[in-house]
Amino acid sequence: MDEEEPVEIPIRDEINLHTFRPSEVSELLPEYFRVCRETGVFRVRVIHGKGTGTLREGVHQLLRKLPEVVDFQLAGEGSGGWGATWVTLRR
Hints:
Layout (H helix, E strand, L loop, with lengths): L13 E3 L8 H14 L4 E5 L6 H12 L3 E6 L9 E6 L2
Parallel strand pairs: 1-2
Antiparallel strand pairs: 2-4, 3-4
């Protein structure tokens, strides 16, 4: 039986959550932020989409709990509006 190989995500200042199941976000974001900090990325745009706002609210609830998150706010109109959130990470 073939096991699925892990998918390697390129570390950038942006992550698009559309390709992940909502149940994966609570494990994905802390790990992504950890690697971002290790590679010197301290500001990340998290794209959660506009939709019903359920994913955005879940992401914001998680961000409030993470000690590595200094601040976060919805992206401006040029960066995705309420479909994305800018996250500032602790150095």
